[in-house]
Amino acid sequence: MCGVNAFEEKNIRLYRWFTILYNARAYYPVLAVFFVDLGIRLEDYSRLNALWALSILLLEIPSGALADTFGRRKLVVLSAMLMVVEMALLLFAPVQGGWILLLMCITNRILSGVSEAAASGADQALAYETLEQKGLSHLWEEKVLSSVMRWRSAGFVISMLLGGVMYDATAVNTFLSWIGLEVELSSEVTMRFPVLMVFIQGIFCLSLALQMKEVEFSQEKKASTREAFRLTVETLKWSITTKKVAVVIIGTMLIDAFIRNYATVTSEYYREIQLPPATWGFMGATAGLLGMVTPEFAKWLNRKFTPQTALIIIGGIALVGLTGVGLTIPIYGLVPSILCMTTFGLFSFIADNNLHKMTDSSRRATILSVKGMALNLGYGLASLLFAQAVVFAKRPEIAAQYDSDQSAFARVLSLQPWLFGGLLLLYVLWARGRKKGE
Questions:
Q1: What angle do CA 323, 325, 328 make, to 5 degrees?
Q2: What is the CATH number of the domain that holds 53?
Q3: Which of 62, 85, 305, 435 is the most buried (most CB within 10 A)?
């Protein structure tokens, strides 16, 4: 058994490449700037992100239940199709296009949310079921999950590096001149290059999804919408009433809400700490490189501690990172920023691995979707709260109480660790207060 290679299974190989290409998106380091350059106001960009989170929130659990009822492969194929369409909308969105631009961006965010919801849980569940059917589920944690995390981190590194460079017209024109092409491209053209790259990735994702094979369930299921939503309600109730499951989901939601909200404003933070725009992609790539080694630390945490203790430790790391970010130290502020970003791989590993173990086959995709719904609920609330806090911090009577050189954005960053620390303490008290045997 020790010599068995999980990646000899076609579904596992396809899952690995699908999750890499689906998640390693080159526009991540410039996303906020891209929308603003298209002509979307910064406050509208925040609202679009809230709409994206709301789309996932409303469809996360139903999509998982539908995956468990109708088949995981169909949901993975749907997610890839929507990825292609959402990227096409950004690729052809007109600059300063008024209501047409806004409508295209709204549609993009909704389709992106639906795509995320469809992929979430279904792709992992399909891969896990493939192993379980062959009696190889023990390979999931040690071989597949850790390996996929490393590959995904490598893809993230490459996409971050390429995204930052491709967006910069000067860098692109310098490269073209170096290879002998005397072409002068405007920033209006190069700003779409990262989106074009992700559009091509979407086409590859669709091809991979179509090659996947459905895994037959161990019990017969009636393929009906009623069955899907019955499973949704049952799994949601089970996740809330089963304390060990709730502890994993709520702990993950708390850390993810603050870290992911920070991740969406990193470009503004880099500007705040006087980091040159050309280096933004390199910062994301550095976090990705560190993400390649975090699976080993995550596995150690998982073996050494209970899930709630592991999440508390990761929460402590996130608190240190957010505190450092709140100081907005010029240049050196990138260190706590990277620390924050590396926690993604840690809490994701702990949550996914333990939820797989706690859940039976019939609702495995659904419970992962419950987790996804919780995470997007937390992120959506954190995003709206952060945006409102920045607006509040801009008020003259509030600004007068702070250093005149400090921006409203920096003021909110400095208060964020206090809120996160308080919520983390409440989580510790609740998680540690579990009854014996739960």
A1: 120
A2: 1.20.1250.20
A3: 62
Q: So what's the pLDDT on residue 410? A: 83
pLDDT digits (tens, 9 = 90+) for 409-432: 888 888 889 999 999 999 989 887
Estimate to the nearest angstrom the gap between the alpha carbon of 85 and the chain centroid: 19
What is the number of structural domains in the chain?
1
| The predicted structure's pLDDT at residue 437 | 44
- pLDDT averaged over the chain? 81
Name the burial class of residue 50, with classes exposed (0-12), middle (13-18) and buried (19+) by CB atoms within 10 angstroms of its CB. Answer: middle
Q: What is the pLDDT at residue 68?
A: 66
- Which pair of tokens denotes residue 144? 């597949």
Tokens of 93: 């969105």
The residues, any chain, with a CB within 8 Å of residue 69's CB and separated by 6 or more, are: 221, 222, 223, 224, 227, 228, 231
* Range(s) of the domain holding residue 58: 9-213+224-432
User: Is 219 inside any structural domain?
Assistant: no
406 found inside a domain? yes
